[in-house]
Design brief:
The chain crosses the membrane at residues 62-83, 117-140, 152-171, 183-208, 228-247, 268-291, 311-332, 353-373, 379-400, 421-436, 442-462. This protein has 469 residues and is mainly alpha-helical. 72% of the residues lie in helices and 0% in strands. Helix 1 packs across helix 8. The N and C termini lie far apart (58 Å).
Amino acid sequence: MSQISTEAEEIEIIAGGEFERTPVPQSKLKSWKSFLGMYAGEHAAGTEFVIGPLFLTTGVSAFDLIIGLLLGNLLAVLSWRFLTAEIAVKNRLTLYYQLEKICGKNLVTGYNLANGILFCFLAGSMITVSATAVGIPFNMPMPKLTDTMPNGITWIVIVLAIGAVISLIAARGYDTVSKAANWMSPVIVIGFLVCGIVALNQLGVASFSDFWNIWGEGSEPLPGQIKYTFWHVVIWSWFANAAMHIGMSDLSVFRFAKKASSGWTTAAGMYVGHYMAWIAACLLYAVYLKSPEALTFLSNGEAPSVAPGPMAYNAIGVFGILVVVLAGWTTANPTIYRAGLAFQAIMPKISTFWVTIIAGTIATIAGLFPAFAMKLLDFVAFYGFILAPVGAVIVFEHFFSQKYGVIKNYAEHANIKFNKSVLLAWAISFGIFYSLSLKFDIFLSFVTLPTWLLCGVLFLVFSKQFQKK
């Protein structure tokens, strides 16, 4: 194994269990190479097999997708570099301990609960992804884009079996999880690349003009989907990982970086996973849409299935099944582990093994319902919208507290367990913009940034007011 992957593995292991309440010591800091391997592997995973095809269901044009993803992923990288990594190397604390200093222990408990549940739902969608591959030898009916409930006993048995295996492995600890992911990541990346090349051949694409003639201006969205424009793609791809960058979750990772410039390594994840892999998966679905099965669905006014297993199998055979299973597995495993850690913060007397099993059980139940995977674009947008504003509290305190006379780490300073300034700022900003999104049918990702900004400003205003009293 290379030095880069070994160091990346080390970071992930200690991020899960060491220096939880102390700054990372100088001796444990890592170079940018460690983060490069980690991000390249983490963001070419099971979610990509679903997100790519879902873009195509929105009728997006080739220009809007290709150029929109270029810009959106760049904005994500800039957020990691100049916000997350910048604050991480200054304080070298986990997100949870940083929040506890600002918000108080009781308020962080609520954050952990929300974070853990959302992690479980995301892991559940990845169990769904793996199930679409495992079900191929059993001729299992695949879930359709509009399905919400399990479609048969075969589906239920396969999901339960996959969920049980993933949960037990995750419960063995992050050492096992991260080692497996590091070995599998190169296979998954190669699988995505090969799938994209084969799909282009199956579509008869020999030149860029052929590609443009096939895709070009896009199409009408499939039943139940909304039409994506250039700005839908840009904003959605920017905030696909909003909880990690502007939400500050990756403080826990970048606290090990020697320099803030390590934040640039996130580009490896954004342009291997969130660019190459999304477009490759999109091409797989383009091939499927020309199949007799898909044309039958469309002629009946129904949306065809978005099942990664059959699409990858159609392109590269048994290797495609393996890639989809591994991609879903390597995403679900660490996600369940992280959910378990979030729950353990709430229930510290329960062992890591059992809280991980609880998280895995919730994820497996979620995986029974295809809606979490089939509506992954909407779920990821909602996930970021809920958690990102919490990061604004950390960002605004870090950059503006001195200028506006706000006491840093106020909960720790005042020895309180509940900082109402944080809760009020989050609740008001969330309530206003979520209501506007529902009332005027605004794409949720479009209001994530305004919500984040308002939460940060309100936090400073309320802090100034309450700290005086």
